[in-house]
Amino acid sequence: MTEAPQDDPERFGSTQFYAALGRAFVMMCAVIPVLFAIEVIDQATHHRLDYDGAIVPRHISGLDGIIFAPFLHVSYIHLYGNAVPLLLTGTFVLAGGAKRFLWVTLFIAVISGLGVWFVGNAPTIGASGVIFGYLGYLFMRGIVERNWWNIAVALLVGLLYGYQITGVIPGDSGISWQAHLFGLIGGLVAAILFRRRKVKPVADAGLSPTLDMPLS
Predict the structure, then answer these.
(1) Is residue 93 a part of any domain in this protein?
(2) C-alpha R_g of the chain
């Protein structure tokens, strides 16, 4: 296993690691109130946002819900249930870099949303698909990038919110297992697509180090 440089923000235990984690936590803390503000507006408009922004399976008019649905929730209870796991998983994903975070989130939302649109059976809203995507991303990133703490975080959050894990298989008619399952798959794939590029070892001290060219 290649050891990360001392100044690598993803090196567990380093000052840079904790600084990146702290910044990510603050930024995610700012996201949660936005979701609650959206829910306030939704409640005030008699759930008009839910109706307009939901993913409606196999209806062209419901495709825009792929973008809007993760920001919407049926009730405050629904939002409360998603807020903490979203905060935790989002913090660790965001700590890996803002640009990668945005690409990963978009990819997960699209894969989860398309899965619901193709095989879902009811209009769907909620951030749980993205949360499952983050869990899959953290777990797979730990494998492909050999960062054990990513795996530990994914397992810990999975254990803390284990009651939701059953949501990846058909069961409760009020839970979109399609969003959870395809979100998880999207996260696993995103960890491979958006993985960090490794620095090649220098074979000769007299030669300049060579970097792998990133895929475009």
Answers:
(1) yes
(2) 19
Residue 4, amino acid: A
Between the alpha carbon of residue 39 and those of residues 75, 111, 194, the distances in Å are 7, 24, 32
3-state secondary structure of 201: coil
How far is it, in rounded angstroms, from Cα 196 to Cα 215? Answer: 11
Reported as a single tens digit per residue, the pLDDT across 64-83 is 999 999 999 999 999 998 99
Give the list of residues 6+ apart from residue 149 with CB closer than 8 angstroms, or none: 12, 142
Q: Are 94 and 101 in contact, with CB atoms under 8 Å apart? A: yes
Question: Averaging pLDDT over each range in 82-91, 137-146, 147-156, which range is the top one?
Answer: 82-91
Task: Give me the sign of the Cα torsion angle 138, 139, 142, 144.
Answer: negative
Q: Is residue 140 part of a domain?
A: yes
Provide φ and ψ at 9, rounded to 5°: -65, -15
Backbone angles phi and psi of 95, in degrees to 5: -60, -20
CB-CB contact of 30 with 24 (8 Å): no
Residue type for position 3: E
Joined tokens for residue 76: 């405050």
End-to-end CA separation in angstroms for the chain = 26
Tell me, yes or no, whether 59 lies in a domain.
yes
Contact 115, 55 (CB under 8 A): no
Instruction: Name the domain count of the chain.
Output: 1
Whether the predicted model's global pTM rises above the 0.85 cut: no
Residue 167 to residue 147: CA distance in whole angstroms: 27
